[in-house]
Batch of 2 targets.
Target 1
Amino acid sequence: KQEVTQIPAALSVPEGENLVLNCSFTDSAIYNLQWFRQDPGKGLTSLLLIQSSQREQTSGRLNASLDKSSGRSTLYIAASQPGDSATYLCAVSLNSNYQLIWGAGTKLIIKP
Amino acid sequence: KAGVTQTPRYLIKTRGQQVTLSCSPISGHRSVSWYQQTPGQGLQFLFEYFSETQRNKGNFPGRFSGRQFSNSRSEMNVSTLELGDSALYLCASSSASGASYEQYFGPGTRLTVT
């Protein structure tokens, strides 16, 4: 059974710092991995999608990497800003299924 | 291009009632998935529809059902509401085969059961 874990559960850093959020999954047979952000009381915004054949994806200050063999993905945020404060979730889709399996999220607070 | 829309945004119901939630996907998207989000269980997959067919279902009781119309709009119904059904219900649309492609989420419907 696929399980997705995100560490840490919460993170607070000063503005301007670079930071890394971690996501691990137990079954390497994934189709893709997606990172989302969720603002309080809101829906989910897709940040990056990495196909299983890819090693990383970049969008602006965000870079996501994927290592299927070790069951890990990282989301790197450069030069963090207060507007980056949100909960970040990773989710994997399985080869034989259409559903997303979710981590519990990392709540990120960027202090001005 | 308009995003995924969900109606209503907020609902308050009492135990035993039933509720219907609606989701309109991004134009051209044929796959719609539904998720339940609670503080205790996090995000959990309910079901996915593609071209009016339910292709996959999560581990929820039969009180949770859904359907998809020919224009790809989807509805989800919960019968005999329980307090534990209070949650944020999110739908997501995708351009191709469900979670194999990027999913785009609506703002959610906040359901409160009293």
Target 2
Amino acid sequence: AQSVAQPEDQVNVAEGNPLTVKCTYSVSGNPYLFWYVQYPNRGLQFLLKYITGDNLVKGSYGFEAEFNKSQTSFHLKKPSALVSDSALYFCAVTMYSSASKIIFGSGTRLSIRP
Amino acid sequence: EPEVTQTPSHQVTQMGQEVILRCVPISNHLYFYWYRQILGQKVEFLVSFYNNEISEKSEIFDDQFSVERPDGSNFTLKIRSTKLEDSAMYFCASSDPRGGSNQPQHFGDGTRLSIL
């Protein structure tokens, strides 16, 4: 069965410092991997995706993620955090295509302090 | 940028009553979805819909649930006899696979359903 794990419930980072939000996945084939962000009282907003190709993918708002097949990880990163990055971040996986059902991780709350 | 819109933003319903949650997907999208998020828990897949029929559903999506695309723009989720445990945030999403299999799903802002 497919699954996604986000080992940290919360990540706290000072503004201007680099941030990493961790994600590992377990699937039986080649995954389609995504990061979504949820701001308070809003829906899930697409940040970036990995389908094939370069292991480092770039997305919205300066975020990037690195696909590591050997470690089955897809960590979200940003070189310099902003207070406005504070939100709930979800790692997600689908199989076969992005039209398939999304399996979400439990979410990581990112808090950026000024 | 086109958005998925959901109404109402908050629905309060007595247990046992029927409720219909409404969604307007992005206009040129062909796949439609419902997900739910119980407070403090993961976002869970409920159902996907394509070409006027359900393409996939989870074990959560039992006989109390149904989906419909009554016209060219709306996509609805009906819960026939609501239970307390149906209280959750319900998200609608849509995607357009004609652009390739890597097109992401776009989500609405959700409907918070509270069952009393």
